[in-house]
Amino acid sequence: MKYTPGIVKENVNISKESPVYEFFILLSGLLLIILGLYFILGFAINIIVPEISPELENILGKNLINRFEMPENSGKRNKSLQDFADNLQKKCINLEYNFILHIVESSQINAIALPGGHIVVFSELIDTIDSENELAFVLFHEMGHFANRDHLKGIGRSIVFIAITSLLLGSDNQLVNLMTQGIQLGENKFSREQEIAADEFALRSLNCFYGNTAGAADFFNKLADNEKPSGFIGKYYLTHPESKNRAAHLENYSNAQGFKTQGRLIPVPENIKQEHD
Questions:
Q1: Higher pLDDT residue, 238 or 146?
Q2: DSSP string of the chain?
Q3: 145-199 residue pLDDT tens
């Protein structure tokens, strides 16, 4: 008698559902777990960050600042920028930081706030600005990130996400990359809100220092000339608001606060604009 194996209709290892359907259920569940942990720990970071000691911040800052290459023979130029920042802080900023300025040779038009009071200013940014007022606004903006402790919150949230996804899925996983892109959209919104808050802090400080906010929007108006419209979808991928929108917001905010928007624009000090040996 020939043996003919039968089809097993019920078995714990055989699902009645489509494998594709089960994959999406598994993927959705995993994503919900990661998102839940991410937002819970992200919320915890907002509580923990204000408690981070200056000593720990200094350690973090030293490790990060060493990643930048400082141009040679920039000592006098760097000192002039440092003196200018010290004067801004002395007159209008009440923060428990001793800001340390660093000029980094780079074609990027940017500045960065790092833990421990470090402010990195890229050389191309200094070459782009046309007035001391613009430079003051940029430095006040970076100091605004310290006022809100954005520099620590951003680092902390990134570390949390990388740690969770690597723990659950491994560090080299395409699914991690897919989820990273999705969550990054939420982080971009968070980043844009931080930028607006820092802009408003800078505007109030600029008004304190000069008695007006002249020059604040000039920097963004110049950047806007070289920016392409991001479109309805593209704006959600931006970590910073569009420059034309930032300039418009600064003007509206100045008017709402009753600040004078017109005033004398002071040339950038030559010892900052031009490098000296």
A1: 146
A2: ----PPPP--BTTB-SS-HHHHHHHHHHHHHHHHHHHHHHHHHHHHHHGGG--HHHHHHHHHHHHTTSPPPTT-HHHHHHHHHHHHHHHHHH---S---EEEEE--SS--EEEEGGGEEEEEHHHHHH--SHHHHHHHHHHHHHHHHHTHHHHHHHHHHHHHHHHHHHH-SS-HHHHHHHHHHHHHHHHHHHHHHHHHHHHHHHHHHHHHSS-TTHHHHHHHHHHTPPP-HHHHGGG-SS--HHHHHHHHHHHHHHHT-----PPPPPPHHHHS---
A3: 888 887 777 666 666 666 666 666 665 555 555 555 555 555 555 567 888 999 9
**CA 150 – CA 196 distance, rounded (Å):** 12
pLDDT in tens, 165-174: 666 666 555 5
Closest C-alpha among 96, 95, 100 to residue 61:
100
What is the token pair recorded at 132? 């001391």
